[in-house]
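seq as requested:
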Amino acid sequence: MNPPSVHRRALITWLAIYPGITLLSVLLGPVLAPLPVYLRTLVLTAILVPAAVYGLVPALLKANAALTGRRRAGRSAAEPAAALPAPVPGGHAPGGWVAQPSGAVPAGSGGSSPPAGQAAAG
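struct tokens:
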């Protein structure tokens, strides 16, 4: 299975960080109140970053994989949308078609040129 997109990973990270910061602020707020803001932030991040990196984010990624796996279970494996015919020796696919990145074109219609250093057969 492919890893989640960067957008989904960002959401997963946010889902780990935001509730964690909120919970730690509520629990440790009264204890940390006398400290300057930079020390409160240091203490909160010293607790939350390892918890998120080693616990929360991996758990959320695993839950994401389970949820997306269930959603895709009924589908067949994804196939390339525009599968091109496999090239054969001589650069032509069966049936007289030439494989091109933009699609298949009939052989001899100018869709391909010989490799550098070779003369065109003609």
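The first helix runs from residue 6 to 32.
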